[in-house]
Amino acid sequence: MATFLYKLGRLAFRRRHFVALIWVALLTLAGVGAASAPAAGNTSFSIPGTEAQKAFDLLEQRFPGMSADGATARVVFKAPSGGKMTGADNRATVEKTVKELASGSEVASVADPYTGHAVSKNGTIAYASVKYKVSGMELEDSTRDALKEAAQDARDAGLTVEVGGDALSATPETGSSEIIGIAIAAVVLVITFGSLLAAGLPLLTAIIGVGIGVSSITALASTLDLGSTTSTLATMIGLAVGIDYALFIVSRYRAELAEGREREEAAGRAVGTAGSAVVFAGLTVVIALVGLSVVNIPMLTKMGVAAAGTVAIAVLIALTMIPALLGYAGRKIKPAGEKSKLLGGGRTPKKPARPNMGTRWASFVVRRPVAVLLLGVLGLGAAALPATSLELGLPDDGSQPVSTTQRRAYDLLSEGFGPGFNGPLMVVVDAKDSADPKAAFTEVGDEIKGLKDVVTVTPAAPNKAGDTATITVVPDSKPSSATTEDLVHAIRGKGADIAAKTDSQVLVTGSTAMNIDVSQKLNDALLPYLALVVGLAFLLLIVVFRSVLVPLKAALGFLLSVLAALGAVVAVFQWGWLSGLIGVEETGPVMSMMPIFMVGVVFGLAMDYEVFLVTRMREAYVHGEKPSQAVVTGFRHGARVVTAAAVIMIAVFSGFIGSSESMVKMIGFGLAIAVFFDAFIVRMAVVPAVLALLGKRAWWLPKWLDRALPNVDVEGEGLRTHAGAGEEKELVRV
């Protein structure tokens, strides 16, 4: 592989005009596609195999005009201080609003608050339920505008009016913090390279790669039902890995220049060596992201595949566009150790050069491996302790910022009707095989009334055929609470008994039940997913490092860092520690997809640092150095770059903490803290300590496995043979 990539790097360097033209053309094509495509909406939740989804499918069959998966809106009215919603003027305003809402072409039905018993007991709050014929993602902008205008007209009449539900979904905003993250990345690159031009190359290529990836996602959003969160995730991952991969190749290029090689040769060798590490690091990220499909949740699968595509683009750009841009830069890119004149280059040093910080740190770890290992493991273990209290759920309008109309509507409904009113359960009774469907409907309603945490049970509403009915159950607790989850399980438990008595089937659905089912499905899939991703990456790393213990150590270190990161997420988003610093307005359960998502993304990113750092150690060991000295050599060449890469990733991920969407905010924080733990504690402390303790045993590989594995030549030994360098050291047999 190293020889192939070496040739590719030299070719891109020589044919830089052609390479640059290809990438500019791809960016233009993707941009045109995105500009002409409809905007992405919020992906609908379709969760195959869950009870809630089965109930939705049954409603589509038995209640054809019901639009079970159609968008909904709750327009909540509150009377002025001292007034009542039953007052003549307020009632006239509401009835006018209801009439205005019902005139929309996509509206299926509007429930009048006064005929539907939707006025609070104290008479100060009322709501109108709007049901649409299509899902929230398919609603036309004119329909959303009509909803906003109707609410505004009622406000102008003197009422407080807020709108909840998925018909008026808030568009997530990342704010200026994302730009700040990129600015921090630029500063880190300038410090790392000592050159504005060298620092600009990784930023430029990362932005081009993300531009192509996100534009392609936007262009395909309508066709593939991709939500806005998909492109946000692709931006987050694409920026981080795009900058990092380019950073590693540019850094190796400058190191090759420092050894006196010509620029085209240096570009070829940089792509052949660091590029090999980029390919395998990118493969681990792609495996982790694509592996999310095993969960069988369409939204999560699409997010993972789209982000994986952006990572693949980042790898290709690093291998081709970076050497092309290095060709354009020419002598403006200085060898390693030299700075541009603008940043103080060309001065005569007053003191002899001392070992860099990476060398000094690695030397310390090699001398005190046990102490460093214990301190690192105990520290991560302490950070992971809050994860033992992990509670999972999915965000609802109650987790939205208080500045949004959805959150204010949620709070008004809780004030007027109780917290459970925001998450009613829909019980579907399928009595098609029952001898007495009406008796079955009554039996179900009576059984549910006797359960704890139930406030209201509406009478059964049968379909025209009379063989299926829906019953609405309002819990006493809020939708995301453990008590509501217990109620859902209790109803399903009663349903099993009722089925035996009446030959009918009882299914619980609605957004709250769907969220509970999603959380359970994610929990069930976590271990199989972990085994699949870690197993495949473990095999890949055996091929890269030609060792059994090094990949094993890498996997165990990853588990430590991801558990510590989950502990931090629980402490901030569930317990509320330091939540004000990052704008967490409402604490509650951790998003249910967070653990499995962090396992996927963090594992891929963690293996980036493992590959980039440890390949330099293996390269030194293979070329004759003692194991402990190889660790120091690896840090001398790689620590500065890996540190810069980690700081850049943390800065980019932290930029998304400013998002108005709780899901994006939590992902940004979780990934940023996970990278911090993994890069600075696991890879910079635990890894060298373990390698120092293992010595030669770290690079042990059974002879039969050594013969069976393909030789991918990540160390670039093929380049020595290819270049005909006969003065190189004889390799150590490992």
Give a description of the structure.
- The protein is built from 22 helices and eleven strands.
- The chain has 734 residues and is α+β, with helices and mostly antiparallel strands.
- Strand 8 and strand 9 form a beta hairpin.
- Helix 1 packs across helix 10, helix 2 runs antiparallel to helix 10 and helix 7 packs antiparallel against helix 8.
- The longest helix has 35 residues.
- The two termini are 20 Å apart.
- The C terminus is likely disordered.
The structural class is alpha+beta
**What are the low-pLDDT stretches, counting only 5+ consecutive residues below 50?**
724-734
The amount of helix comes to: 55-70%
Largest sheet: 5 strands, antiparallel
* Spatial gap, N to C terminus: 20 Å
As a whole number of angstroms, the C-alpha radius of gyration is 30 Å
What oligomeric arrangement do these chains adopt? single chain
Mean pLDDT: 84
